[in-house]
Write the structure tokens for this entry.
Amino acid sequence: MENNSNFSTYFNKTSKAFNLEYFLLFTLLFSITACTSKNYEEPKIALDQYYIEKGFALHVAASEPFIEAPVTMDFDNKGRMWVVEMKGYMQNLAGTGDHIPNGTITILEDLDQDGVADHSKIFMDSLVLPRAIAHVYGGLLYAEPPNLWFVDIQNDKPVNKVLVDSLYSDGGNVEHQPNGLMMHLDNWIYNAKSNFRYQLKNNQWIKAPTTFRGQWGITKDNFGRLYYNTNSRQLLGDYVLPNTVVKNEFYKPKSLLNKILTENQRVYPLHPTAVNRGYQKGVLDADSLLINVTSACGPLIYRGDKFPEDYLENAFICAPEANVVKRNVLNVEADKVTAEQAIPNKEFISSTDEGFRPVNLFNGPDGNMYVVDMHRGIIQDKAFLTPYLQKLYAKKQLDTIIGMGRILKVTHTSSKQDAFINVEEQSVSKLVDLLKHKNGWIRDRAQQVLIQKNEPKSIPLLKKILHDETSSAVSKLHALYILDGINTLSYEVLEKVLYSEQSANVISHAILLMEQFSSQDRTMSIAKIVKHLALKNNPTIDLYVLSALGDWMAFSKDLLFPLVQQLSLRYKDQISYQEAFITSLRGHEESYKAFLGETLKATEHNVIAKILNTTISNKAKNKQNKIFTTKKAQVDNRIAGYNIFRNLCATCHGVEGEGIESLAPPLQNSEYVTESSERLALVILHGLSGPIHVNGDLYELNIAMPGLANNPEFTDKDIHSIIQYLRNAFPGKSKNISIDKIKSLREQKPIDGLGFTEEELLKVK
């Protein structure tokens, strides 16, 4: 209740004038008013240290105390922000407390509708380092390592919790665990740092292999290509639609997936920032400014309707280590995508506030762009934190920037705010109309709601969009995948689209969707369609035709081989088209090779010959593309090494390698760590007996360090992981060492068999 001190004073002075009736009535009215009043006081956050590209404005949409350490977000159908708060991440220089269940998923509300969150409510708490959410299927999908969960939402509370995947992020750490959870145009949910995708079909969760993509954050364009990045590569992506060229399990395509879209990794911070390896040559310039990105994350293809037209489908990228958000312009071709810096030597958003940590970007229901600012001083995970950066963090007191977090909104000064569209409240016909909306967020959510509703009366309206020449290509794509999502797409509908449609993008999707309807009685029909599409001589269409015939081959090899041979010859020297074709040949490589016969040896066939022979050889060896054999997320060996170090080595050497008096010497600046990986491996394997010198100081300890060579719990891979972590944590001149070398060093034992001495080790280079 709100305290009304003015009323209290007035009442005290005049209480004798009130009779009992008026007193009771007035008290009742006051109680109702006070208890229903809302506090709209919003924190004031200054942005005078922030700079944004001309014509744009930056606003605080939410901040502390309503949120802390946000890492991602999503909007619900009512337009409210749902924020994932990773409060346990790097709360101090030692990185302790990351196991504490203090993470939350918070709903932010703007009750006075002024564009700034003024209330918050906890949807879910007691989470350990949560990392991703998505509003899908009328509920919420969320990731809390190692699990992926789905819950229904009832009165803003989670109900009916279902485990989707117990191995979603099994192992690893925050920087190297799956995240993203982005519902795509094709009705699959894709992730970064993962080679799996998910879908709820007929009340069953499906987990299927897909291409491994990126590190932190994932996004899409209107056509459906996926974009992502890694720490040191600001923008990566697939040149083609997901899962179109990976259906042949014995061939791994290289020309169309996981491509670096720009060689320019330059970043332009406004001030010297704390980065992990600033001491290395080429990391900082003469003014101590970061040269290239080292923590790129959270990419976004802008698909809203509030920026000028030339910003549509620009790629925006977070670089939290430099306190900037970058902007790149995309150039899209049939089988290639490239990107270039939008404005030379200048970032879209930049700040001198070293607490500004943009980690994710999102399109909003209002057509604007939203920036998730973790606003945390320490962003380098402890497993990869070098002593150099740790000291720099301490010097700058960045460990004191904690307990904060912001969501920033980017608007264009010329745009006007439209009335909010509550997707949940729309009729079926209105939802279908929303597929034509210029804001991609609205279209995406309308697609989901229509699939969820599964109303038969939507079918004729969707087909009308498909066959209406005035409908945009992008609205037709949504219509196709809604029909597919509600199991009402048919061969006949697609056949009509393929003969009548003019848009290469729509045709490309339609031919891919056609594959599921392959049958013996349609072989003549599909052959005619392939001939018809080939006459268009369109590189985009040809690429998808070549990749979309796999399920038809079993029924119509004799008809299709001559047709695809002609199509393949159009692009005889382009590996991208031949790699697209090999996905259609799955299981029929030998037959096609026999069909080509002697012509396979001709010069014009050498690209396809190489791919064919590679695939046939892989099949004979049962050598599959790893996406079909990997069962869980891949773990960086430095993380595994860190975990072993914390549980085993830190007991004597200290958590930060500082050494413990009378127990073990320091690892920091130790020549046993920094000068030779082979020397370090021998110590870990066979132990060490003193006295020894470390960095000029003599350590005469009575305790010998035991080796791990005879401990069956530690494999050569474990030893390798420990060394990789130590080389990262305490860098020096030591070089990488192979697991095979570690295996051989097991036989190189100390003279007395009790542990290497300093004299013996110094002979090892």
